[in-house]
Amino acid sequence: MTKSNRFASIRSTKKTVITQPAKPEPAVGHSVEKEAVEHSNKLSLSQMGWRVHFQHQLAGLDFSEGRVARISAHHRGQYDLLSELGETSLAVKSDLPPMTVGDWLLLDEQGNFLHLFERDSLFSRKAAGSKLERQLIASNLDWVFIVSSLNHDFNINRIERYLALVNDAKVTPVVVLTKQDLCDDISAYTEQLRALDSNLLIETVNGLDGDSVQALKSYCGNGKTVALIGSSGVGKSTLVNSLLGQVEQSTSGVRTDDSKGRHTTTGRSLHLMPTGGLLLDTPGMRELQLADCEDGVNDTFSELVSLAEQCRFGDCQHQQEPGCAVQDAISSGSMSERRLVSYQKLLREQALNGASIAEKRAQGRSQSKLYKRIQESSRSNKRG
Ligand SMILES: Nc1nc2c(ncn2[C@@H]2O[C@H](COP(=O)(O)OP(=O)(O)OP(=O)(O)O)[C@@H](O)[C@H]2O)c(=O)[nH]1
Ligand SMILES: [Zn+2]
Question: What are the tens digits of pLDDT across the range 11-48?
Fold first, then answer.
C-alpha cells in the first residue's frame, strides 16, 4: 500500500448511515432487536467521538495500513470495540498496554492490536485489594456531569471534591443540579457555585422530565462523550434514563431494561444517546474517590493558589504567618475561610490516598522481613 492511500479506510469521508429512530421504539421483540443489531451498529468515526487530537497522531504514525477502533467495554478477558465496520472485540493479553473504556486503538486488517492513541483525558484510581498499580476507569471524555440535587443533600465541599477529580482528569466539568421541581430557591444554590468559579458551567434539571433534561442537549451532540459522577441518591440513574430516552439506544442495538426500570446492557459502557452523543456509564466512574490528584485540587482552587504565590514565605501554611496573602484575602472578605479549609483538607486527603500505595508497598516489605525473622529464629531455636 502506498503512503498516499494508507489509512484509506480511516480517511474515508463516506458517511455510514445509522438508523436511529427519531422517537424511542416501544417494547422490543426478538426480530426488531435482530434488525437493530444488523443496522444500527455502524457509526462513523465522528459519531464515535474521533477528533483532531487523534487525527494528528495518526498522521505521525508509521504503520502502512490499519483501522481505528474505540473501546466500548472492558470485560475480564476481552475489550469490546466500535469501529466503522461495526462491533468487534479484542482479547485481553499481557502484551497489550493497560487500556480502558473510551480509548482509541489502531488495529491491523486482521483486527490485531497495533497502537494505543495518546489520551486527551483519563480517569484512574488506586487499584482495589492488594494490587498496587492504578486502575484505569475511562478516557477521552468531553464533559463530566457532576450531579448534585437541589435539596439538603447539596454539599459545596463535596462538589469541590468532584471538581478536583474532574479537573485532574483534564475534562471540563458541568455541575448538573437535579430535583429543580422540589426546590423553591435555586439561586441560593447556584450562587454558592458561582462563588467557587464564576465561569463554572451550571445546569438545573428535573431528571424525571425528559423535556427538562433537554437543557443538557448541547453537551450531548454528535460524537461528544459524557459521563456522570455524584453521590448516591442525587438522581444519576434517573438522568441516565432520561438522557438515553425511554428505550435505550445502545450502540449495539441490544436493548434491555431490568425490572427496576434501569437500563442495563450486556456489560457495555458506552451508550448512544438520541442526541448523537455517547454516554459513558461504568460502576468505576460512579465510585470514584479523591486520590493522588494534587493538580486537580490546585486547578479547582486556582485563585487561592495564585494568592499563595504572593505570601512572604514560600512554605506559608496560611495560618498566622506574617505577610500571608491568603489570610489577607480572608480578612478583607474577598475569599471565604471555608475555601481555605476545604483546599487544605482536599490536599491532605488526596495525599493520604495517594500515599497509601507507597505505604502498602512498605507494609508488604516489612511484613516479609518479619516472616523471615520468625523463620530464622524458629530454625535457630530448633538447632539450639
Ligand atoms: N422530584 C425529583 N425526583 C428525582 C429527580 N431525580 C431523581 N429523583 C428521584 O430521586 C431518587 C434517587 O434517584 P436515582 O436516580 O436512583 O439516584 P442515583 O444517583 O442513581 O442513586 P444511586 O443509584 O444510589 O447512586 C429516585 O427516587 C428518583 O426518582 C428529580 O429531578 N426530581
Ligand atoms: Zn500564606
Answer: 333 332 332 323 333 332 333 333 333 345 689 999 99
Q: Is 234 in the pocket of ligand 1 (CB under 6 A)?
A: yes
pLDDT beneath 70, residues of the chain: 1-41, 127-132, 246-267, 289-292, 353-384
Number of domains within the chain: 3
157 and 110 in a common domain: no
User: Which CATH number belongs to the domain containing residue 191 in this structure?
Assistant: 3.40.50.300
Residue 126 lies in a domain: no
pTM summary value: 0.72
What letter would DSSP give residue 346?
Answer: H
The CATH number for 315's domain is: 1.10.40
Q: What is the CATH number of the domain that holds 78?
A: 2.40.50.140
Q: Which ligand is nearest to the CA of 318?
A: 2
Helix or strand holding residue 377 (H, E): helix 337-383
**Rounded distance between C-alpha atoms, residue 333 and residue 312, angstroms:** 20
Phi/psi region, residue 226 (left: phi>0; alpha: psi -120 to 50; beta: rest), is beta
Is residue 144 in some structural domain? yes
Where is the binding site for Zn(2+), in residues?
Answer: 311, 316, 318, 324
Please report the pLDDT score of residue 8 as a whole number: 35
Residues with CB under 5 A from ligand 2 (ion): 311, 316, 318, 324, 326
The answer as to whether 131 is a domain residue is no
**207-216 b/e with 16+ CB inside 10 Å = b?**
beeeebbeeb
- Name the 3-class secondary structure at 293: coil
Give this complex's ipTM.
0.95
